[in-house]
Specification:
The chain is mainly alpha-helical. It is built from 7 helices and 2 strands, in the order ββααααααα. Strands 1-2 form a two-stranded antiparallel ribbon.
Length: 135
């Protein structure tokens, strides 16, 4: 039987970032969002959902490894959009720093890891709202 690929997301520097894996991405998001008020005060659900919408937009166009390869450059464009939002608002910048959501894009070489990235992003939004994220 073939061994399954370990799916972890890493920061740009190659260090593990919360060791986000298939079996713990929701737990990582939960832990981060518990501290949302102290780590990124001023972040709103609306702003967070806007960021997530960019991720979902890209995910809706990718359904296989072949499509991922064709649209891999769009990951860089997603990073540009994130950098712009972080530059506009310090709460967003802090969010990206604490969650490593922007940096993790550099460790998404396959479609499977992209799916993991999307699930992690969705979990962050869900737990932000769960813990009373404001609009």
């Amino acid at each position: 039987m073939a061994e399954r690929e370990t799916k972890e997301l890493y920061s740009k520097e190659g260090e593990k970032a919360y060791e986000v894996r298939e079996d713990n991405y929701a737990d990582c998001a939960n832990e981060i969002m518990r501290r949302r008020e102290q780590d990124f005060p001023g972040l709103t659900t609306t702003k967070l959902r806007g960021i997530y919408a960019h991720i979902v937009n890209l995910a809706s166009r990718i359904g296989s490894q072949e499509e991922f390869e064709k649209l891999k450059g769009d990951l860089q464009y997603l990073k540009v959009k994130m950098a712009y939002e972080a530059g506009r608002e310090s709460a967003v910048k802090s969010f990206f720093e604490k969650t490593n959501l922007m940096g993790m894009l550099d460790s998404v070489p396959t479609y499977d890891r992209f799916l993991l990235y999307c699930r992690y992003a969705e979990s962050l939004v869900a737990y932000f709202k769960y813990y009373g994220g404001k609009d």
